[in-house]
Amino acid sequence: MPPLPTLAAAMAAEAAEPPPREPTTPRSIRLGVCVMQKKQVKLARLLAELRQGGDLEIVLIPQDQILEAPVEHWPVVDVLIAFYSRGFPLDKAQAYAALRKPFVFNDLTMQDLLFDRRAIYRKLVAIGVPVPKHVVFDHTDPATEGQLLIHEDHLELGGLKISKPFVEKPVSAEDHNITIYYPDAVGGGSKRLFRKEKNQSSAFYPNESVIRTDGAYIYEEYLPTEGTDLKVWRRRAQI
Fold first, then answer.
1. What is the pLDDT of residues 113-160, one digit of tens each?
2. At the N or C end, where does the chain have fewer CB atoms within 10 A?
3. How far apart are CA 136 and CA 213, in angstroms?
């Protein structure tokens, strides 16, 4: 039978054991918001609600820092919300994400695609999302001369006919000057859509029915929505 440990040995063994660890409070998640000042104002209410949960530290990256400071000097965050608007340096946001590797809500590399409506349509078709019947034509490309057939109430390209009313969109998604052309059966004319100025975002021109020929455009069938402005957001893969 082994000898019983002496009191001194028991005390020594107890002293050698590490002290119990104090419970620790989990660190708040640092949520970085990297957008232009105008967008930060619009996000204020949402960010205030996120703060109420107590587990998020909201880090607003100031616009002057976004525009002027190198990304190495931007605050380090765990999660990043960043999206393009006019004047936003998307390339810097992409460089920051590559450097710090936060969890990014909006895929910054994919935001480049959003500048070209042709690329957007190709992507939608590739993933099975329906798009309006449309054609794309570059009026400035000499190689395409004579290919677009323009008639009074429709146009045709490569055998695909687009009848009025149809929508004319610049291929650049940064250009918001969109025109809708109406057939003579309903009076003809066109409606121009543009960035909202005061309380107006469109104007009707009853005597203007000739399409623009100064660049590359998408011409697509007009889908009536009875005045409803439709917007779609993707929250996650299942929604």
1. 999 999 999 999 999 999 999 999 999 999 999 999 999 999 999 999
2. N
3. 12
* Tally: H helices and E strands in the chain: 5, 13
Model confidence over 4-46: pLDDT tens digits?
556 555 555 555 555 565 555 567 899 999 999 999 998 998 8
Fill in the amino acid letter for 228: T
pLDDT digits (tens, 9 = 90+) for 35-45: 999 999 989 98
Phi/psi class of residue 159: alpha, beta or left (left: φ > 0; alpha: ψ in -120 to 50)? left
Instruction: Give the residue among 134, 107, 106, 108 at the shortest CA–CA distance from 122.
Output: 134
- Please report, to the nearest 10 degrees, the dihedral formed by the alpha carbons of residues 105, 109, 115, 121 taken in order: -90
- Dig out the tokens for 208 from the structure: 């203007």
Q: What pLDDT was estimated at residue 225?
A: 77
Give, for 8, the enclosing helix (H) or strand (E).
Answer: helix 7-16
**How distant, in Å, are the alpha carbons of 10, 53, 154, 155, 157 from that of 220?**
86, 46, 11, 10, 12
